[in-house]
Every structure is written in structure tokens, then in C-alpha cells.
Amino acid sequence: MTRYFFLFLLLLSTAALADDGSRLWLNYDLIKDAKQRESYAPFTKFIAVSSDNQTLKIATEELQTGLQGLLGKKVTILKTATSTGGILLNVNQNAPSSANISNEGYEIYAEKGNIVISSKSETGVLYGAFELLRAIQMGKSLAKLSITSSPKVKIRMLNHWDNANGTVERGYAGSSMWKWNELPHRIDPRYVMYARANASIGINATSINNVNASSRFLTAEYLEKIKAVADVLRPYGIKVFISVNFRSPRTLGGLKTSDPLDPEVRKWWNDKTKEIHQYIPDFGGYLVKANSEGEPGPQDYGRTHADGANMLAEAMRPFSGIVIWRAFVYNADPNGDRFKEGYAQFKPLDGTFDPKVIVQVKNGPIDFMPREPFHPMFGAFPKTTLGMEFQITQEYLGQSTHLTYLAPMFKECLDTDTYAKGQGSTVAKVIDGSLYNAQYSLMAGVANTGSDVNWCGHPFNQSNWYAFGRLAWDHTLSSEQIASEWIRMTLTQTKQTEQKISDMMLKSHPIYVSYTYPLGTSHMMGESHHYGPEPWLAKSARPDWTSVYYHRADSIGLGFDRTGKLSNALQLYSPEVQQKWGNPEQCPLDYLLWFHHVPWSKKLSTGRSLWDELCVRYYDGPVQVGNLQKTWESLKANVDPEIFENVKGRLKIQEKEALWWRDACVLYFGEYSKMPLPKPLTPPQRTLNEVKKLVEIYHLR
Ligand code: BDP
Q1: CB burial class (10 A; 0-12, 13-18, 19+) of residue 216?
Q2: Which protein family is it in (predicted)?
């Protein structure tokens, strides 16, 4: 009797802790509404696929698993449809809308009592299968289904900053998901889960190692390991890229130099590229961080970025792969403006890059700050293919403890008008290739995946991986729609709960910005770990790694003057953009201190002085986090208990740390403004020195 009782208790407790998050948005939990389940029954009698192709097999199995989970019934797989009422998978060059869809695109439509998923490629069918499962989870009716979709961007890529020793640069979800010590002999089942998750949102490329690259990844030993990964990812439509160290000809090849114009160096890269293709015939290409933050590059030999990139492009010429060259470069000039440096170094090279080169540009000119104006290179390089680099991992955005949904931030950048070719020349049109008719197009996101059981640390961080993929596929999707899809597939099927969670997500980025970087401030985080506030940081290995370099607080005011009076970085933008941001009276408050040094007492459009507005925002942030907590608490009975507790704990940390940011910034800037807090705000209950000590504690952790 007691034995059974304990067994019962055990079952009860495992049932209560049901969701560890490992299934991501592919949990396919049973649709609770029986009526809805029944409505899908007439179209889910079987799945028909005539070919044995591996990708189609994966699509079929995904549909089978998905439908079994969602509808609670086994769906049979047939070679050919024997009756109506099934899902037909077709690879078809002449499908009805084939003129309008690209090779990876798909159509899903109801026809003669069946649902047809059709594409010109097997991968397109796989994407269509995921879309159908999504449509079912979103409660769409199948009877008149008609979806046509093609990716807007060709290369939709994750950049892993994973190292050979298992650590992850700026990773906040455990250690690396790649088990280099086990590869190629053991294939961790998570590689397959990773491939499914990526395919489900259309990601088709991955660079597997840190841009601060070790040459080790080009050794035969590692190529064998990478091949094993590539073999797993290939049937899911994902190509593998490698980040390379520019000095590899010397360190690995034993040459005297790595000068890109040296014939022996060029031969070394040609041979190495051929060798890689023996392991990975469809190798995606190279990703290169050169002459940036101490990494080697062509400038070490008096050559340009184009010389370096074009050398690698030449090595890649016999193959389909490409070269992705990062524009994240800046010099340590105390009197300069880091904002301008990528532009300055690359602008003279516009038009000199090989067509196989994509220059990958971070969304903003500094470094993945929680809010940055778009990078001035977008729209200013008509003769170079520019790709977008977003950061999914939340280096400056609360890492894995602050709830920050990033789709609105990604979209803010993509939707901004560069005016490069007149009104409507958005950043999105630059990077999807439509503005300049580019052959290639790229959107890359620095991955937030790790060995944590739920992949991303904070359960909500999964939504940023999801959102990145969805936007790379279609940047016109709204943040609301993406949030709603993710919530439905991951957390709840109940409309009301979904709406509350969506509301939390959509508010989360503005909340984060309000207690960290209001009004266009930036780069005031703790040194090296990039967590917590350190606005007083004035000394570092480089001036542009301090905080004072950016906020420029003095007795007069706050902010970096980037008008003609000082750095004139504004001049890098088109006249229309300059007009919008160049006048402090008209500049949107969200960008104000990016471009203007504003007096503390200056009255803003809100009717408050700069100082008062700053304080109001810093104080509002933690209050809003409190509201997030209340909303979450109200959902206790409606979400999985394990996820509930996990998020609840992290929201508590977030609240504590929002207060930390608030107190640090208000106390520190108060020493410059010398103004009292506006009523009814009450001063922090600790001194600036006490707050400064918190950073030391963090360092010790
Ligand atoms: C910065 C990170 C650093 C990266 C660098 C990069 O702090 O770890 O190596 O970006 O993008 O944000 O290369």
C-alpha cells in the first residue's frame, strides 16, 4: 500500500514538473479543444510522399510526430494517396504559384479534399511541413488553406561564438552545445533537435565557432568533427560555415607570413578550401573577424579588408560557398568617435569586394547596445553586399536573468528608413538585397544556445531565437504575431493567457531600456562581464571601453554630441536622416543622447527637464518589472509549473537588478546635475559608494 502511495506521489510530482523547456517551441502538446481537434481530422488521415529522399522523410516524420502530439492520433504514411483527406508532399517545379516562389519557398493549399505542401525543393517542403504544423497550432482552418511563402533573405544564419574548449563567448546558457571531444564518433541527439528547431523557422546556415577564432578548427582533426555536424544538419537544409583565424597560414601552415598578397599564402588558402570540401562538399564558407579587438587581419601586412576578403573569395571560386567579412572594427582613439570607424575603414573599399564577399555589419555602429540607431553603413554602400548581424544572445540585454523580447528591437532597426534611394529605402531592403539587386543576402544572429536543458537559460530567451529566424525569413512579420506564435507553441493554448504573456513580452524591451539606457544613453555596463551598471568606469585598457567615453556627463549636461559641433557622425547618414536626428528639438527622445549633449535643465518634449525625465524613466523601470511580476503571478495556474517557477525566480532577480541600475545611474549622474529628484520620487536608500561595491561583488561571482 505504502509502496503504491509513494509511486503515486512520484508520478504526481513528475507530472507537476512536466516541461523542462528542452522541446523548445516544438512540444506539440495535445490540442485541448476536442472540437478543434476534430476539425483537423478530415485532412489528417494520412501523409503521402512518393520519394525516399531524406529531407522528405524528415518532413513526413515531423508531420507524423507533430500531428500525433497535437491530435492524439497516429497518422499513417503512404507512398501514394489512396483516398482523399490526407497531406500530400510534392516536390514540383510547376506548382501553381511556382513563378512567385523561390527555391526554398513553399505553397500549402487545400485541393480535392487533400492538403498539398508543394515546393521546388525538398527543403521547401520541409519548411512547408513546419508551417502547416504552426497553422494548426495557431488554430487556422484547413478547409480553405492557401499559404504561399518565400524567404526574403537568402542566408539566414546563426553565428555561434563557441570555443573548442567548450566555453561560449557571451553565452549565458551553460557551455557549448557542440561536444568537440566526442565528435565525430558520438552524435549528441541535441544536434538533431537543434536542426529541427532551426528548420522550423527557416534558418539555413550556421557558423559553428567563435569569431575570435582558433586555427584549430581548420585542422584535419577538427574538419572531421565539423563534417559529422554538417552531415547531421544537411538534410534539414542547413549549411555549415567556419570562422577562421586570418593568421592560420602561419600558425597552422608554418608559413612565414599570412599576407593576403603573398602567393604562398594564397595557395595555402586555396588548398585548405579544397581540403574542407573533401569533408563537406556543400561547405557554406568562411566567416572572418579581422583587425578587430586584437584579432589578426590583412592590415597587419599593410593590406586592406578587401585584399583579405578577396583572397578567401578566390579560394572559394570553384565552389558554391562565400566569404562573410565582418565590419566590426574600431581603433582606440581617445579623441575619435567609435561610431564612425567601421564606416571610415570600409567606405573607400565600396566596389572593390569580390562578388562572393558579404560584409556583415552589426545593427548599430557601436556594439549591440540595447538601443542603437541603425549602422550608417546601411544605405551607404551601393556596390557592396551588406549583411545584417544581430545579437540574439543578450550580452547587454540582461543575459539570462532579464526578460527581454527582442523582436521589437530587431524590427526597429529593419524598419528604419535610410533614405538611400529616396523614401522607403529601409534597412530591411538593404539587407534583403532588394534595394541594390544584390545576388546574395544575409541576416546573421549571434546564437544564444548552450548546454542548458532548455537551451537558452531564461525560458523567454527561446523566443529571441525563434523571432530571429522568423524575421530572417520574413522581416514584415510583426513582433505581435511572432510572440503569439511562440507563446502558443511553447507556453499555452489559452487565448487569454497568450495575450497576457504577449503583453509582457512586448513591453519588456522598453522596460529594460528604461532602467538601463534611457533617452539614448549607451555603453555604461560593468567592465568585461557586461552585466550591471558601471557608469563611473573611466579607466580601461582602451578609452572606448570605458563608460565616460560614451555618456560624456559633465556639469552642463549629458550625451555625445555627434553633430557638426563635435564628432559629426551624423554626416554619415543621408540628409533626411540627419534632419530627423540632427536637431535636438526634433530628435526622438529614444535617440536624443546618441547625438546631442543636452543641458540637464533643458526642457524636453515631455515638458520635463532632461534630468527629471531621466529620473522618471530610471524609476519607472523597476516599477514596470514589478508589474511584469504581478502579471506572471496571475498566470500561475495557467502555465507549466516548472516554467512558472523558473521565470518567477528570474523576474525577482530582474527587479533587484533594475533597482541596482536605477540607483547606480541616478546617484552617479546626480553628482553632475546637482539637481534634486523630481517629486514624488524618493532618493535611493543607499549611497553611490555602496552601489559601486555591488559591481565588485559581481566580479567575485
Ligand atoms: C563584443 C563582445 C565580444 C565579441 C565582439 C565581436 O563583447 O566578446 O568578440 O563583440 O562581435 O560585443 O567580435
Answers
A1: middle
A2: Belongs to the glycosyl hydrolase 67 family.
